[in-house]
Amino acid sequence: MSIRFAAAASAVALAASLATPAFAAESQETITSPAAGTGAEADTAIVITGAEGASLALPAIAPLDPARTMGQEDDTPAITISGAATLTSDYRFRGVSQSDEGMAVQGGITISHESGFYVGAWGSNLAGWGTFGGANMELDLIAGFKFPVGEGTLDTGVTWFMYPSGADTTDFAELYARLSGAVGPVSLTGTVAYAPSQEALGNVFPVGGGFNPGDKEDNLYLAGDAAYAVDGAPITLKAHLGYSDGNPGLGPNGTSIAPTGTYFDWLIGADIVPISGLTLSVAYVDTDISEAEANRIRPNFATLAGNSISDATVVFSITASF
How many whole angstroms separate alpha carbon 264 and alpha carbon 278? Predict the structure, then answer.
C-alpha cells in the first residue's frame, strides 16, 4: 500500500500545484452521483433568502431594517438544502456499466452547513453487473467537510455504498479527498478514494467442497477532472481520467468495483444548461479493459445479450436540480 499512497499523494500535489488562481470560497454542491465515479458533475445549490418589501413613493419615514443596520442583508442561511434528479441512458461507474447498458433513474440530496460540513444521499436503479437481489438499487450515504486550502478547496469525507435488501456482505465504506481549483478558465479537480480492507471487496476462494467468501481486500481509485466553461455560451466542456487498483476477482457476490484488478477509465463530454436548473449532458466513456480480461469474469461481466459492459459508449443524460 505504500506505493499506492505515494501515487495518491503525487496526484494531490499535482492538483495543488495547478490550482492557481482558484475559488477559495466555493458554493455548496448537490450530490448527483457516487463519489469519484465517472467525472460526475455537481450542481450549484439555490439559496432562498427573504424578499425585500416594495418601496412606496410616499412622503413618509420608512421603518429601520435591522438586517441593513447590522450589515447582514446579504447573509446566507446557516443550512442549505440542494438536490437533483437525473435520467441517463447508461449508469457508468468508473467506466463500467451498472445498468446492463440500459437507462437509469438517479437522484440525490445534500444538506450543507455554513461551516463546510455536509451530509447527503444518492441512489440509482441497477441491472446486471452490480445487482444483489432485493431492490436492485444502489444507495450511497455521504458525509464530508469542505474547507479552503491556499487558493483551492479540499473536500474530504466518506461514502457508504449500500444495496438495500440485497445479498449479505455487499455494503462497504470508501474514504475520499478532492482538491479543486482553477487555472484561468479551466477548473481542475484531483481525487483520491480509498476503501480499506473489507469483506465486500474480497476474493472468493474454494475451501473443501464449497467457497469461503471471508477474504478482505482494499481498493484505491485516483482521478483527475477538468472543466472549461465556454465564454458567452451555456456550455461546459469536461474531461476525466481515472485509475483503479483493487481486487481482481469477482468478489463474494459475483462483482467487484475493480473487476480486472487494475485498469484506466476516461471520459470526454459536454454539459449544456438551456435554462437555470436544467442540464443536458453527453459524454464518451471508455476503459482499457480488454476483451480477454472481460472474458475471464463472464457471464457476470456482460449484458444479457453477451456484450462487454466496459467497452466504449456515448452516454446521454438530463438533470434537473434545485
Answer: 30
